[in-house]
Amino acid sequence: MNDASGPAALQAGPAVRVRAPGKVNLLLSVGPRRPDGYHPLTTVFLAVDLYDDIEVRPNPLLRVTVHGHGADEVPLDGGNLAARAARLLAAHAGFDTSVDIRIRKRIPVAGGMAGGSADAAATLVACNELWSLGLTGPELHDLATRLGSDVAFPLLGGAAVGTGRGELLVPLPGPDGTQFHWVFALSPRGLGTVAVFSEHDRLHIGGEARSEREVLTDLDRLKDALLGCDVHALAAVAERGNDLQRAALSLRPDLRGTLRAGREAGALAALVSGSGPTCAFLAESAEAAAELAEILSASGTCRQALVATGPAAGCTALR
Ligand code: C5P
Fold this sequence. Notes:
This protein has 319 residues and is an alpha+beta fold. It is 36% helix and 25% strand. Cytidine-5'-monophosphate binds next to helix 6.
């Protein structure tokens, strides 16, 4: 998509800004690889208030610029997920127009918190508004699932069960305004999702996955913990809920030190976030999270430790 040739009105107008949340998986049960290469998942996503901000404005060429830590690791060509989102939405609307996309990153790049997916979801929402398309939530959801397994969730935010390859979402009732307090220990370098799934396959040759019954029990426990705002019950499931953790630790043994440092500093749960390498720690309170972040930041086991809370809202336009 080069020269803009959409309706003249599409070339004018102000920029639209959308904020998208990162996520942590409270449960990530991974089944055997499917013939299409994907793995069937039973997961519980929790959106957290570690946000990327996306700004789109009319531009004759599709252009992406990224600011923030790790920006130089984000592809800026047509393979960029936000660029693909803009192209997909334009094609869906049946015109050939383009945008300038500016991304301010706070969600770690290649960090297991679905930052690229958040950027793509935010771009769908922003371009829908910029181009006055009026697409509904379900229509955006459908486009999101075509971009990637994790792109639909940031549209919703909150907490949700994901099945299929992670894109089939059922929202979970939240803890009525109460927030869970997290610390995220960021790694100096990213980890590729594909590599972690491949390592998972390699490690599980002849191994056993959790039984369906165990997964359903954990799912029920998580639903109750979220509804009842029971941080200890949430911690108990989350601590051992990530099937990709073993593979992430196999590729990045140094993360064991990060998890240990968080546990020793009093985290209620210490886990790898999604496919990693970000490590997530659950804390009892905002004060406990701040203290934990300080200790982790000084521990030398991570690049930086950030506090965050969840559930956070899904993609939201900034006025
Ligand atoms: O869906 P997405 O493009 O984000 O997935 C990236 C890669 O992660 C896939 O190509 C696949 O290797 C792996 N993946 C998987 N099973 C899933 C989701 C992702 O194996 N459920």
